[in-house]
Design goal:
Helices cover 16% and strands 45% of the residues. The chain has helices spanning 5-13, 64-68; strands at 19-27, 30-41, 45-50, 59-63, 72-76, 82-83. The radius of gyration is 12 Å and the shape is globular.
């Protein structure tokens, strides 16, 4: 599992355009689950286009720090790999 922000960005760059499942910490013991496509990666954030039939908005963005701190967990549909910090 990636240990640095640069490693997380590199691993996400390899999965651009692929479908994913996203679990995010919503605060107060809430977990938000979303599905979509990894669209773009930038220097500090990545963008996910969400499925329109399940969500009220089109896109969501998270920082690589969210993955590093385990606030966000990503699982790609085509593989059984997870992009998250080791627990």
């Amino acid at each position: 599992m990636p240990k640095t922000l640069a490693d997380i960005k590199k691993s996400l760059d390899c999965h651009l355009g692929k479908r994913l499942q996203l679990k995010a910490n919503g605060g107060r013991k809430k977990t938000i689950e979303r599905a979509g496509i990894l669209r773009e990666t930038y220097r500090a954030v990545f963008v996910v286009d969400l499925d329109q039939d399940e969500n009220a908005f089109e896109r969501v963005s998270y920082s690589y720090t969210d993955i590093l701190t385990e606030a966000v967990e990503i699982t790609f549909d085509d593989e059984a790999t997870q992009i998250a910090a080791a627990k």
